[in-house]
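Field reference: "sequence" (input) and "structure" (output). Example, Major facilitator superfamily domain-containing protein 12-like:
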Amino acid sequence: MLTRRVKYGYGVGHVLNDLCSAIWFTYLLIYFHHVLLFDNSLSGVVLLIGQVADALSTPFVGREADRTDDLPFCVRYGRRKTWHLVGTILVLAAFPMIFMGCLVCSGAQDLAQLIYYAPFVVVFQFGWAATQISHLALIPTITQDPHDRTELNAIRYGFTVMSNVVVYSVTWLVLGLDTTQGGITPEDASKFRYIVVIILIIGAMFAASFHILVKENNNYTNLGASSPTPTPACVSQDPEVSSCAADALPSPAVVDVPPHFRMKAMDWFREIQFYQVALVYMGTRLFCNLTQAYVPIYLQDSLHLKQTSVAVIPLVMYTSGFLTTMLIKPLNKKMGRKASFLLGAILGCSGCVWLYLGNGEVYSKYLVYPMASLLGAGGSVMLVTSLSLTADLIGPNVESGAFVYGAMSFTDKLSNGIAVMLIQSLNPCTKCCPQCSWYYRGVLTFCCGGAAILASLGVLSLLSAKIGHRSRPISSTDEESASRDRATPGCNPDLPPYPLSPNDMDGWQGEGAGQEDKGDQGEGELTHNLTHNIEHTGEEYQAVPQGLRARLPSDPIEDVVI
């Protein structure tokens, strides 16, 4: 089992991103429109620049994070953690500049100020993408047990919710110090600066904790000087998921991983499930991000509540989401991933309907809270389950896991940026008036509800599919190797059940050593069998817990997986 240190150390690794994301999606439009007095379209352009920069960064970061095995620092520190560290530094440097005001052009036109803010937005989003993708890509590397993956995603999302709770609590405290004002005005600029500084200090401490607590196993050459005792027992896992692995090294447990292929970045584009899961993830993120961005504006422009409402109502949403995360793991075990996701979509759509029908003073004072709870609970279930589906899609192919997460995030960021830009551009007027006060009610009802339905259609298309199944054909040579591997489920009788050092290989005979067609196997013949099974790029190979790689003495150049 994964230790609590690893679980919760991993969970806090995305807190800085979550804190900044909460401010970005919840308060960016309000800050630029109500404080800096940008018009609706230019406010949307700022967010669009960030989302496009993030969308373009994620595939690049994902691909590069999968290719840095041989860089000296990455080998020592961990390729995922290296990118996480780079992203953290960029976020801490660029994000505060977005909310500090234009230092050299405070009195300039909106377009000139937009040019000033754009580079900081791009750098922040690149750093955010580097941190997000590297953090997500650690999950398939840490464990291939589907229930452990669900738990890691639940813990991660639990800290996401807690991060949002912290942001809204700090905002509530800072904005609530002045009880004389109604809505948010340009005089509140200094309050937003205080909020950002406090949040970044908290996020930096959690980022440091992650790098101290979590050790990425990135040892590609030294599998150990001594041989552990082979344990031939194979462990069966959830049939819905394509693979599983031992919880941690150096445990010698052998895992039940079906034969699969090494997947390069371009290979994923030939898998239909890649597009189906991307649709689910994109719809889920649209639902979560649009509710996060437009609920505060809805409270200010449609319901005309006081400024502390932009902290209190989102706080209710994420408290509901946090409580729901405690039920996600047992819910996934009992109902399965797909049914759990559909339940979350039903909760989210119910909140959208409640919001559309809500009106009057009673709704504004009391009934808005149950609506916020439904949105928070539905988004929580959908997001955690969609991340688990993505991890299941990757399965044992951790060699390109970062690219998959980057591609998923590309669809998320680009769709969110386009959606926000369209919503802001279609706003019928520049200032709040009775004629357009309910515009954002329609946005939250139809855009967010439509995103939940879109994601549900993606899940429905996967009902009859086994997540992680590869459609790539098997050659005749591969078929012989695969049939031999399947003779004992999850174990190859010709290979040792645990990676042995070269000095110990001659002591391993294999289960078929006594058979007539096997004979005595020395080190040379066993090494030949190993290289015969793995020398063909893209063909089947045996998975190793936590994605360990090794270099055989006979082939010092090529990376091979044993």
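Strands lie at 234-235, 254-255, 260-261, 540-541.
The chain has 16 helices and four strands.
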